[in-house]
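look at this one:
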Amino acid sequence: MSKKIRTEAVDYLFSAILSLKDKEECYTFFEDICTINELLSLSQRFEVAKMLREKKTYLEIAEKTGASTATISRVNRSLNYGNDGYDMVFERIDQETDPSL
């Protein structure tokens, strides 16, 4: 992980996020801490990552999500050369959906 983001303030933010108990609390907190556009951008990148893992084309992804090819490329680079954070979360979501995985 990049040492640039490892600060006391980021640690405190992550502690706050980890304290959230359910989706409703997430909505309440994130609506306060993020602008609507920031939250929509985060969710768009997450959807792009999901679609890239499903081997969708850039064109299919752009049409469905409205993401630019630059955003799709950036997410793809994170999937291929990042810290595997997307994969970690997607695996957990998959296990929640299908515990036999």
Remarks:
- The mean pLDDT is 94.
- The radius of gyration is 15 Å.
- Residues 1-33 form one domain.
